[in-house]
Amino acid sequence: MDISRPSCALLILLALYILQLAGCMNAKINFREKEKQILDQILGPGRYDARIRPSGINGTDGPAVVSVNIFVRSISKIDDVTMEYSVQLTFREQWLDERLKFNNLGGRLKYLTLTEANRVWMPDLFFSNEKEGHFHNIIMPNVYIRIFPNGNVLYSIRISLTLSCPMNLKLYPLDKQTCSLRMASYGWTTDDLVFLWKEGDPVQVVKNLHLPRFTLEKFLTDYCNSKTNTGEYSCLKVDLLFKREFSYYLIQIYIPCCMLVIVSWVSFWLDQGAVPARVSLGVTTLLTMATQSSGINASLPPVSYTKAIDVWTGVCLTFVFGALLEFALVNYASRSDMHRENMKKSRREMEAAASMDAASDLLDTDSNTTFAMVRQCEIHMSPPRKNCCRLWMSKFPTRSKRIDVISRITFPLVFALFNLAYW
Fold it and tell me: Are strands 112-114 and 176-185 parallel, antiparallel or unpaired?
C-alpha cells in the first residue's frame, strides 16, 4: 500500500501536466498583440531613426531606390483659359528599408499597417507642375503604410491635384493636347534617392473614364531628371494625350456660322427696290456673326497667334460683310442704270427728231443708191456672235441685276472652296 501511493501521485501530476499542455495548445494567439510588440520592437525609441534614409541595393551605400505607380481615378476638368487640369489619383511608392525586417510568425503576419507617415522614413517627392492639391480625410485620412517582413514599405495615398498644362491652340478646336504629371525629389539628389517607374503597369486608368469635351487617347511614362546648382534630382513624368471632342463645336459654332452665311445670301434673291429688307438682313447677320465671334474668343485665352477657329469665324464674317457690301454696289449700279436709261431715252428722242428731218431728203435720192446704202448699213450693223456666258448675261439688261446673279453663284462657290481647303 505504501508503494502504490507515490505511483498514484505521479500519475495525477502527469495527467495535470498533459491537461495544461493541451490547454496551451488550444489557446488562440492574439496576432494584434503580436503586431504591437513587433512595431514597438522595430520602431521603438533608439531602434529606428526616421531621419536617416535606407541603404542602397543589397545594403550598399548607393542611393535608395523608390518604385512609383499611380492609379488615375478621375479627371474632372481641362480648362483652356487657365491652361490647367484637375485629376484625382491614388499615388503609391514602394522601397526597401532593411531596418524594418521582422519575424512573420511562420507566414501568419503578411504585413504591418501604419497610418502615420512620420513614423518611418519617407521620400521627399513633390509634383513640380502642381498649382493646387489636397488630401482626402473623409471619413478617415485616405492613407496607409504597409511594412512587409523583408523590410519592403508600401505607401499609398489618395490626392486631388490641379496641374498646369501649357497648350498650343493653333488648331483649336481640332487640336490634341498633351498634359504632363511630373514628380521629382525636392531635397535628395540622385546620389541618395532615385525614383523608378514600377515594372509592368506603372500607370493605371479607371475604366470608362468620362470627360465632357476630351477623350484620353493614350498615356506615356518617361524620366525627366533635372540638374540645378545644387545637384541632379530624380524625376518621373507621365504624359496624358487628350483629343478634343469635335461634335460640341460642330453643333455650337460651325453649323450656326454656316447658317448665318447662307442667310446673308438671301438678299441676292430679293428685289433691288426692297432696300429696308436687304439692309436689315445684312446688318442683322453681320451683328449676329460678330457676337458669335466675340463669344467664342471669350472662352479662350488671349493668345498672340491665330487659331483655326479664328480663321473660320473671320472668313464667315467676311462673307457676311461682303454680302452687305454687295447690296451697296447693287444700289449704286441701280441708280447708275436709271441715269443711263434716262440719257438713252433723251438721246432716242433727239435721234427720232433728226431722222424725221432727213426723211424728206432721202425721198429725192436715187432708189438704187438708197438700197445699196441700206444694204451696206445692215452688213456693218449685224450683231456679233455671242458665247454662252454673254448670251446668258444678255437676259439681264441692267448691271445691278447682273451683279446679283453673279453673286448668287460666286459667293456659294467660293465658300464651298474655302470649306474644302479648311477641312
Answer: unpaired
Strand, coil or helix: 224 = coil
The CA distances from residue 74 to 81, 110, 162, 202, in Å, are: 21, 31, 12, 17
**Could you tell me the three cell numbers for 51?**
531621419
Q: Which of 66, 379, 86, 366 is nearest to 197 (CA)?
A: 66
Per-residue pLDDT of the chain (423 residues; tens, 9 = 90+): 454 555 666 667 666 666 565 554 444 566 678 888 888 888 877 788 888 999 888 777 889 999 999 999 999 889 988 999 999 999 999 999 998 998 888 778 888 888 888 889 999 999 999 999 999 988 888 999 999 999 999 999 999 999 999 999 999 999 999 999 999 999 999 999 999 999 988 999 998 888 888 999 999 999 999 999 999 999 999 999 999 999 889 998 999 999 999 999 988 888 877 888 888 888 899 898 888 888 888 888 888 889 999 999 999 999 999 988 988 888 887 777 676 766 777 677 677 767 776 655 555 555 555 545 545 544 455 555 556 656 555 566 677 788 888 888 899 999 999 999 998
Query: Full-prediction pTM beyond 0.90?
Result: no
- For residue 107, give the C-alpha cell: 507566414
3-class DSSP assignment, residue 135: strand
Identity of the amino acid at 330: V
Return d(Cα 350, Cα 342) in angstroms, integer: 13
